[in-house]
Amino acid sequence: MTDGLFDAVDALLNQIDQGDLPAPAERARLRRAARLTQRQVADALGVQRVTIVAWESGRTDPRPPQRQAYARLLNGLAQRFPGTDQDREQTADAGGVAPGDSAAGRDEPAPAAPAEAVEAEAVPPADPAADPDHAASAEPVSAATAPAGEAGSPARPAPDPRPAGGLTAAAPWARTSPPAASPPAARPPSAPVSVAPVPAASGPATVSGPSVSTPRPVAAPAPGGATAKSPARSRPAAGTDQAPQEAQAARFPAGPLAVLDAEGKTLRAHLVDGRVLPCPVKSLPALVAWALDAGLGAERLHRAGRDADPLLVLTSAAAERLGVPAELTDRRNLRLPEDDALVKQVTKDGWRLTRRGFGPWTKVYRPLADGGRRQCVQFAFLGWDALDTRSWGDAATLPAPELAGLLGAYAARVVTPRGSTAVAGLALMTELRPPTQAVKDEAGGTWRSGPVAGSLTEVVDPAPPEAPDEHPVAQTRAAGEVLVEEAYDWHRPIHLVGDDEGNLEHAVGLDVNAAFLAAASRLPVGLGAPVHVDAPTFDKKMPGCWYVDLSGIEIDPRLPNPFTPTGLRPTGPGWYATPTVAYAAELGAAIDPFEAWIRPDRGAYLDPWYTRLRDAYLTTMADLGVTPDLDEAAFLAAMAGHKQVDPARAIVLAAIKATVKGGIGKLRERPQGARYRPGDRWPALERPTWRPDIRAAVIANARVGMHRKMRKLATVADLYPIAVLSDCVVYPAAGPSPLDVLPRGADGKPVPGGFRLGVSPGMVKHEGTRPLEWALGLLVEGQNPARHIKGVDAVAEGE
User: Fold this and answer.
1) What domains appear along the chain, each with residue ranges and CATH number?
2) Structure pTM?
3) Of 769, 722, 766, 739, which is closest to residue 507 (Cα–Cα)?
4) Closest CA relative to residue 703, chosen from 530, 532, 582
5) 312-325 pLDDT tens trace
6) Beta carbons within 8 Å of 74's beta carbon, 6+ residues apart
7) Which long-range contacts (CB under 8 A, 24 or more apart) does 787-793 make?
């Protein structure tokens, strides 16, 4: 009896030692008062930035040992920056406990504060700069996985293991009586060589209504040539950081986009922040003028880039009101004929259409108008399937206000939509690393266009092995002289499944989160034209492709071969991207290439792209209740129902994933249309971002990254997969959970270097579980169980 009483008292003391915390709104106020960024706090506590966002919004609460350290930080800040009466009122309005107020006696947790977007770091202002408009191809996309998680993040100090000290009345928010626990929101369960280079191919008006801080949208590409921007324009943020939200709201008070719907005889524009504006227009040309006056748009992502153009998304009812046909009769070209009356109406008075014409995504622009400023408005017609269900799910069927909020979240976290998600993924690369910038001629004092360091600045032809079969440089190469770097499609031969494995009950699929995105982190790629080298010395830091014989490397047949997408052993010399050859060297093979096409001008071109999409992915997952601080069991429970937490945010998540895959696929866009003849050039070849070598490097890095982890589990735990498809691997297991598959070390932690459960890109989640008997039956038939482990055809579903 006595022991039970002492245990109960100890439990109360332990609860107090967890560290008392202020309300979420007060946590954010204290950090801002100290001029600390979320990144600084995250680095100090050894967590990710998105975790601080979740703590400050009330979605989750810290856990030990970070909880004590976080409470200690907030206690110190509260003593230096005591709150005012206004702060107390604002905190109370946000649903939390105001500083100095007691929460004792409350029977339920305070409601969480509204979700806060990840804040941008403070950066010095930059001088205005000019660059050419960057028009991304909007043609259909061919779909195109890796170091774990936060490979690009700086090392973070370990949290202070010491207790946070006695948080007594010295802390302004300290309670005077033991509190009832406030749980977080519930979640659902070299030798010199001779070289020969390959030649390169040749102020908006404000709108009525309250002033609000809209989500931070991003810049869009624009048509036209390089022109110097007027110095009178507002200064952009430096580098790739975004301008403060206040500046965003001032320059673009209506936000990045509007969804237009018809109510009776009137058009109404639904903004991303919930406001509704009247739109008294009766024609598309009048709608263009209205959009330019409404204050729509978004800040650029790079100081040398351009601000995003206004986007108007038209429902079928709104389009009908403006005379737009309900359906496109030309299903092959997906555009109205050039002689259509609507096209002539839109293009009068100097307005133009881009190469893709008047289709589901239409851009209307007038170059060098309004005192030298380009004017441009983009349209998306929902009735013409502008929002592809493969990327956007049922978004097009949502009410206009909900669709505006959904698209606004994507615009703020990724980029303002301007075509398919693949087009957006490719355009985002250019927005984050524009090819040119304004350079001042010191002698003459004039401005000219110059390259941006680290960007893709010119159109270059691929090396012959890198080119797809249709490309002109591929027409004279020998048969088989092709670089084939693709994702895995492999399953183990049934005769190699042992009796011990075959007697298990389950087949468990593990899926790598955003595998292509993780593979892009810190990956060196070529920035310029390829250079041919005979008998080179291999350099794992040199981007390129290498002709080398990897067929002699012995790989356990229960594992896929890492050098081919089929997982079969190479039969002789072949062309391989640098990550593949580097992995062969890691396995102990002697690398002696016969020849290579290398790119000495190199850099981590995709790093900003990786960072922005990683943050977008993690922030959206946090919206759905899945955060990096969850333990494995909690992570699996949260993932089991995360799409039902907020269906609209689940659509945003799917669009972000499609942006990653589609953007990588666009790097090697194939020719479109039945009239194309092999050997002819096609439009995509005329952009600097048509780079099949970069696509090959990303996919190769993803494939060998998966093999590295599979080999680790085979070495330390005698675990071998029975199937792999792209970023999904299937293991036989005694139980149905990933926890029944992934081994633990002597310390009880996951084996270092293997697959780890978690939300970050490069970590894994549960893809699905089926009876092992079912999986073995597919192996007998020569089919890949990884393709169906989720219960659907993964390839048909675009996985």
Assistant:
1) 2-119 (1.10.260)
2) 0.72
3) 769
4) 582
5) 999 999 999 999 99
6) 21, 22, 26, 27, 30, 171
7) 787/723, 787/725, 789/507, 789/509, 789/723, 789/728, 789/730, 790/509, 790/728
